[in-house]
Amino acid sequence: MFGGKRVRWWWFVGIGLGVWALAATTSDEPEVSTAESPTPALEPAREVPDEAIVNARKRRALASLLARRETSRAVTLTVRDCHRVAAAHAEVEIAAGDAHVAGRADAHGVFRADVPEGAREIVVSARGGVAPSGIEHRGTLARPGPAVEQVSGPIAIALSICPGATVLGTVRDEAGRPLSGAEVVLGEDIAVTEADGEFVLTDLWLEARQIVVTHAIGALERPIEPLAAGEERQLTLTLEEGRRVSGVVIDHGGQPVANATLTARDPAGEVLGQARSDRLGRFWLKRMPLSALRLVADGGRAGLGELTVAPNAAAESLVVRLAAQGVLVATWLGEPGAVLVATPDAAPWESPYLPEDNPHLRVLTSGREALVLAPRRWRVEVHQRDLISPCGGGLLMPGARLEVRCGGLGTAELVAEVVGEDGRPIAGGWNLDVDGRRALGELDAAGRLHARVELAFGAGADLVIGAPGYARHERRHLPLSPGTRLDLGRVVMISRATLADRFPDRDGTSPFGGIGARVQASTLGVALTAIARGGPLDLAGISAGDVVIAIDGTPAGYLSTGEAVKLLRGRPGSALELQLLRPDQSIFDVRIERALVDGGSAEWVD
Fold it and tell me: What domains, with CATH codes, occur in the chain?
């Protein structure tokens, strides 16, 4: 019994010692007592720390280092090769003060590291693969102290490891003499030749495909074969006297015009060269002088265009826009020997004689069609000995035909079909004013209007039509000539009830359905004098100063302001087609949906 109890007691003692030993090995480090104790007679040998103790000491040391270290900032380095492509896995080094970080960029050519905040300079370097020429791709970039210190937060640096290529050579004239002061452009690099005509250029990204040279005596554009990394290429460039003039011909709608004739003239009017546009509207003229040039483009029925090139100005990628044209026919019915001369009203005369420098002046052959600029109001006069007299004229729209006759008394006819909004004929009265002479009459029961006026030369006519229950209808600038017949087609009269619905008041301050513009009659149509901010025209990108020359196909130059406003207003959500003339003489078509416009609260933009 006693022996059994002794065994159990030692058994408990053994378990306790085992638990104490396990706790000692799992702690970060054995406890060390600071209390004084008697020195033992024999000091036991120092045990080697096991792995757990060593790791614990490292963790504490690292934590202490991080607590004391200087604040850092992130640096992101992006490495590109000779084709601006990410240099994947390029070897990278970043030096910032005493810190030095090295590694490899990722698959996107990006390497990130932390550097001390107070570093006065950051130097990055990288290298990649070896080029086919055997030259290793390498690059180095330093960011100076002020740039680093003044910028807080992360730093992004882009670095090229492309060794590039070198292009060097000489620029000479056609006689072989070196040219100094010539500007040589290769990609993003520009050089100026020295006294011996030599130049040196580099192509860092190996993207250059042409070299361009300009000098006081002429210009040169020459393609070059692709450059290799580290290549050194020698070139001798012979400069032709004169510059290269090139560009594209477009019509008034912005479309390229093929087979247009380009004529280059000097300021005195002498022809320097001619060319034709290709199917894409492109043209080229070589060896043109560096003095001022006037380019005249004739696209036939596509229109006429003109462009002035200043002296020594760049003459590449020019755009010659053609103005629209119409057909003008002037016929002289009098005695032979008269000369018919036409000029647009856009250049009014201050004297009875035609200005000799008017580029749009046209001498016409009687009875023959002539293509002239449109939209324009054209005036035709007769020059007979020392006498200048009017022949007539009128408004010519793009693609339309204007016929003017003079020199003999004849009957001009004007016809129209007058109907209401429902298409039924309307009988009423009309008033025709031709050069101050008025002719009165009645519309017949079928709504047919027929007027006859005796004239000796062409004249513009103003027409007013009235009928009970309808708002009067007005037209202006109607061309009448002896022996001609003008058909207005169907004229739609608007009832006073409909007009009152569209125009709740006449001052334009109440809400109405319209395009969001204030208008004013002009020679060619209806000028937009102000645009409502946020209105249909404003949202379509149309500005004040544009001129509406057609409304749903009706030439606005023949309409009074009131008639134009009647057509422009309407039910919100309804659409209409407008043709507009810009100040630069370009013409474009736009579809507009009417919206509710509050004339009193809208912000009008001039």
Answer: 72-160 (2.60.40.1120), 165-239 (2.60.40.1120), 243-321 (2.60.40.1120), 323-502 (2.60.40.10), 504-605 (2.30.42.10)
